[in-house]
Amino acid sequence: MYAIASDPNPLQDFCVADKHSPVLVNGFACLDPKYVTADHFFKAAMLDTPRKTNKVGSNVTLINAKQIPGLNTLGISIARIDYTPLGENPPHTHPRATEILTVLEGTLYVGFVTSNSNNTLFSKVLNKGDVFVFPEGLIHFQFNPNPHQPAVAIAALSSQNPGAITIANAVFGSKPPISDKVLAKAFQVEKGTIDWLQAQNPKPKMASPSFCLFTALLALVSWQAIASDPSPLQDFCVADKHSPVLVNGFACLDPKYVTADHFFKAAMLHTPRKTNKIGSNVTLINVMQIPGLNTLGISIARIDYAPLGQNPPHTHPRATEILTVLEGTLHVGFVTSNPNNTLFSKVLNKGDVFVFPVGLIHFQFNPNPHQPAVAIAALSSQNPGVITIANAVFGSKPPISDEVLAKAFQVGKGTIDWLQAQFWENNHY
Fold first, then answer.
1. Does residue 207 contact residue 84 with C-beta atoms inside 8 Å?
2. Residue 311 annotated as binding site
3. What domain range is 347 assigned to?
4. In 3D, which of 195, 165, 190 has the Cα closest to residue 177?
5. 400 and 356 in one domain?
6. What pLDDT sits at residue 142?
7. 364 pLDDT above the threshold of 80
8. How far apart are CA 344 and CA 356, in angstroms?
9. pLDDT grade, residue 429 (50/70/90)?
10. The domain spanning residue 218 has which CATH number?
11. Same domain, 92 and 220
């Protein structure tokens, strides 16, 4: 079965984390059951107690497998979130978890932005007792619009270690920094503006000690399928795009009507593509182009880069990407989740291969001012999705409140209004 981004599925009653085991596995090795007690499933977490908030006005106290060893393999964690008056939990993603949030006190304006090309904002004002769901891997936020009263929420997350990537921190506060040349083109601003933003060194949104326990484990091997593709239970399940039945992916076409053409497309991936104003073009071949890919958990893309062109910072909420350079040179990198936001970058030459883990912000940039570059990327989903950070944050429809973004990026509302007024072009075709 596929196991792209979910937690290991329990194969016994429990697998309490043995944090002292020298064995490295996905999650933690199991403590010998004869040493397990009720305390391994318990923590006096005091989630009823208000927390001190940081300068963006929030504090997330996460209780995951690091705090409760009995959560290992069980695919869930919980958090208390405190918001000051006008405080926010700024735009971020959870690369390995869907979040379901319940308001305990006060009012929250919340929302998430869908992936390219629509970048639709789904937002709602929540009152005490209301519940809202943020799908796995999508950029989302919460904001307390009340200038006088704090707010409190409880969030459950569908992973023992969901990870968090605060957009401003990861993009402008990575260590080492992403090239200002890359970011200036991606966000359509001058390098001086990028240098100023990077100099702010935004602090992680979670100020509590428990936030320091947010690790960046990449759950790439397990038996569940929370964010991965449906697993094939027969030789193939060719997508029936005309079926009225709604399923995860597509219903299966009757096998007696299947032909070799359902597994084929004359995609001309050897042919150069015209690039857009940021200097790239992604030609994706997924289940929409080849119906036979349904349930098979893979797709492929050709990426063209103009001289000094880039595939700007983005994520794939449902896929790991493995990229091979066919022509030219690429400077590539990805940024880990909070609190470290470490940049792993490399210069690739023709024939080199690089992996971008599922859900993490990554980019490719052609540093050559005279020669184009070409790459082929395979992605571990029939429909990997793409979220271009600048487009989703500043080009959502309707726009995210400029008050939310001004606080998140530590700039004036005028700067946010200017960024939202730009035309955010899609490079996926």
1. no
2. yes
3. 255-421
4. 195
5. yes
6. 96
7. yes
8. 10
9. low
10. 2.60.120.10
11. yes
Q: Tokens 């493995």, residue?
A: 322
Question: Measured in Å, how far apart are the chain's first and last C-alpha atoms?
Answer: 30
Give the chain's domain count: 2
Q: Which residues contact 50 (CB under 8 A, 6 or more apart)?
A: 82, 150, 152
Question: What are the respective helix, strand and coil percentages of the chain, to the nearest 5?
Answer: 15, 30, 55
Non-local (6+) Cβ contacts of 22 within 8 A are: none
| Residue 20 counted as an annotated binding residue | no
**Bond into 117 cis (ω within 30):** yes
Mean pLDDT of 19-41: 87
Say what the pLDDT of residue 226 is.
Answer: 35
Sole residue written with tokens 């390995």: 96
The 10 Å Cβ neighbour count of residue 69 is: 23
Q: pLDDT tens-digit profile of 163-174? A: 999 999 999 999
> Per residue in 250-279, pLDDT tens?
999 998 898 888 888 888 888 899 999 899
Stretch (H or E) spanning 133:
strand 131-134
Instruction: Confirm or deny that 316 is annotated as ligand binding.
Output: yes
Q: For 276-342, what is the HEC assignment?
A: CCCCEEEEEECCCCCHHHCCCCCEEEEEEECCCCEEEEEECCCCCEEEEEEECCEEEEEECCCCCCE
Residues facing residue 361 across a β-bridge: 335
- Residue 226 near residue 5, CB atoms below 8 Å: yes
pLDDT tens digits along 180-216: 999 998 998 889 988 988 887 544 444 333 332 222 2
Tell whether residue 140 is among the known ligand binding residues.
Answer: no
155 and 210 both lie in a single domain:
yes
In a domain, residue 179? The reply is no
With a CB cutoff of 8 Å and minimum separation 6, the contacts of 421 are none
99 labelled binding-site residue: no
pLDDT at residue 2 in the model: 36
